[in-house]
Each structure stands twice: as structure tokens, then as C-alpha cells.
């Protein structure tokens, strides 16, 4: 569904919507009684931003809402913003409602879910609240999860194909090939001696074609070990998406292991990220060493295995267990990558001291987007 375009607003009306009711006396030509759409937009904004900023940081402007804002219910608010605002604004409002103000009813009400715009913020909210949903709401939430997951898969799959596909090497030519591989410039240059000046024609005796070099992957194990504590929701989402994309690569055996203080092996569902995300239980402590040990026990050929630990590296048990496990893995020829972030922004927030110790024993640690991880994996698997 496409939201209708926003009504035309004067600069004064736009400032009035931004600053709230308290700014009305100071703005000449602010929202007037005749601006029905502007008043409706203000009421929708006031419902959300007029509730105060005690949750997660305040606006730089002290915005005060109107007296009617609190009368809106969540379904009414969702309906209004879809009628009043463009798509980009709707997604921002829904994201703020969930991430900033914790209005989880957005994903626990069937009527609301039917109107909600599928986006990663809503997916994260579903993961946080799915244990509170009744079967009817959960079924609707699963449909929303599937839409968001498919969009993420489509994007990451392109990056994976680009990273793992063969590249054309212009310096290697052949006398045989398909029409799409025809090397026009090289063919012309090599056949100039057959040019007929009288007829003004070039007779091509030996056409040339570019050769394709495909990256051949021997069998590898990739073990994604992902922290499922509450703060790692974006990482869990993208780990599930990455596992699903890797699952279909020839020569790659993918494992997906989630952990807090306990371990959940999701390898059996790794090909279905929707099922994976609906099974993840967020929260709890963080025993990274225990999870890495579990992954190490499933390695078949150490020198053709890669353990990717996705965590903030705030270890809940003795850090020496994790360090010793990583040291042992590296010593046997297994590559270990520690990812401090796996969301699109790759904002690093992790225990840098423990990460430094892991690097000292041979691990690679960094913050990568899913696309960057795909490139890193392709490089290491060559």
C-alpha cells in the first residue's frame, strides 16, 4: 500500500508541527483551525512525542503535544499516520514508537499489524514481544517477519553472489567462447592485418573471447555463533539472514548456534530464517566461551573451518575459557572471526579489552556489515 502524499504545508506550519503546541503563539500563521490535515498531523505527532523522553534520550527541542494526543489508541494512531504521512515518515514514526518509547502494542495487536509497514524495527519488536502474543497475533506477526526477512535476503544475496562469483580476467583470452564473452577490442586489434582498404572491411579470421575464472570452493564449515542477549537483536537478525544465504552456497556447510548462558543449535532451521527468528529466545546472560567450545566440538576438518563469533564480548563467565578456546582453534588451523556488530550501520559497542586479548591469540576482530562479512568470507574461503 502506498501512503498518500503529505498535504502542502507552509514553512510556519512545518515549524509548528516540529515544535509542538507550545510554539503556536510565537509562530505567525501557525496551524489554524482551518487546517484540518495539519491539526490531524499534529495530533498524531503529539500522541507519540508528547509523552516525554524519559525512555531513551530527549529531543533537542522540548516538544509539547496538544491536549487531544493521549486520546488516540494505537490502532487509530497507526491508521492516521498511514493516511497523513509519506512512507519514509511512517517508517520513522513506527521505529520511534518501538525503539524509543517501547510501545510494543504496535506488534501485539492484529489490527495494528495489518496496517504496519514491514521494516527491521518492527521485526526487532516482534522478536522482543512474540512470547506475549496469542496464536492469532503470532500468525500475523510471522507474515510480517517473512516480508522483512525476504527483503533482507534479497539484498544480502546479491552481495554474496558478487563476493563468491567468478570474475572476468581481461588478460586471459581464448579462441572459443559464448557471444556474451566476445572480446571486440582485442579481436579488432589482432585482425588488423586482414583489413581490406578497397572494400573498407575487416575480415575477422580468429575471433577472441574473454575467459571466465570461477572461484572453486572446496568444502568448508562456517559456524556462526551468535549472542542472543537482548542488546544483540540486530546481530541475531542479520546472523539468521547470513546463515540462510550461506546455506545455498555450494561447498559450504553452515551451522547457526545461538547462546546466552545456554546454547541453542539452530542449524536445522538455518535454511529458514523466519523459523529461526521465531525460535530465538532473547535475553539472559552471556557465556561466550561455552558457546565457542560447543562450536569447536562440531568441527570436522579444522583447517577448513571458520568460527564466526557475533557478540559484544561482555563475557559472563571467566574470560580465560574463551581465550583458551580461541587459542586452541587457531593452533589447529581454524580461522576465528569476532564480529562486534552485524547491523547495517555496524556501530561497534563491545568490550575492547577482551577483543584485544582475542586478537593476541590469533583471532580477527572487527565491526562489519553483512555485506562486508560476505566479502571477508569469500576472501578467506578462496
**Cross-sheet strand order for the largest sheet:** 7-6-5-8-9-10
Structural class computed from helices and strand pairing? alpha/beta
- Write down the domain tally: 3
| Residue share in helix | 40-55%
Query: C-alpha Rg, in Å?
Result: 28 Å
**Beginning-to-end CA distance, first to last residue:** 44 Å
The arrangement of helices and strands along the chain is HHHHHHHEHEEEEHEEHHEHEHEH
CATH class of the largest domain: Alpha Beta
Strand residues, percent? 5-15%
CATH architecture of the largest domain: 3-Layer(aba) Sandwich
Q: For this structure, what is the CATH homologous superfamily of the largest domain?
A: von Willebrand factor, type A domain
Question: What is the overall silhouette?
Answer: flat
Q: Residue ranges: pLDDT <50 for 5 or more in a row?
A: 1-5, 54-70
How many distinct beta strands?
Answer: 10
Q: What's the main sheet like?
A: 6 strands, mixed
Oligomeric category: single chain
**Mean pLDDT across all residues, rounded?**
80
Number of helices: 14
Write down the CATH topology of the largest domain.
Answer: Rossmann fold
InterPro entries: LolB (IPR050458), Uncharacterised_CoxE (IPR008912), VWF_A (IPR002035), vWFA_dom_sf (IPR036465)
Pfam families: VWA_CoxE (PF05762)
Protein name: VWA domain-containing protein
Q: Could you please describe the fold and organization of this structure?
A:
The chain has 382 residues and is of the alpha/beta class. The protein folds into three domains: 11-117, no CATH class; 182-214, no CATH class; 220-381, 3-Layer(aba) Sandwich (Rossmann fold). Helix content is 43%, strand content 13%. The chain has helices spanning 11-19, 36-49, 74-84, 87-99, 110-115, 120-129, 135-164, 184-190, 233-247, 273-279, 288-296, 319-331, 352-360, 370-381; strands at residues 167-174, 195-196, 201-202, 209-213, 220-227, 252-259, 263-265, 305-310, 335-339, 364-366. The strands form three sheets. The protein has a six-stranded mixed β-sheet, sandwiched between helices. β5, α9 (233-247) and β6 form a beta-alpha-beta unit. α7 packs across α14 (370-381). The protein is flat and about 80 Å long. 35% of the residues are buried.
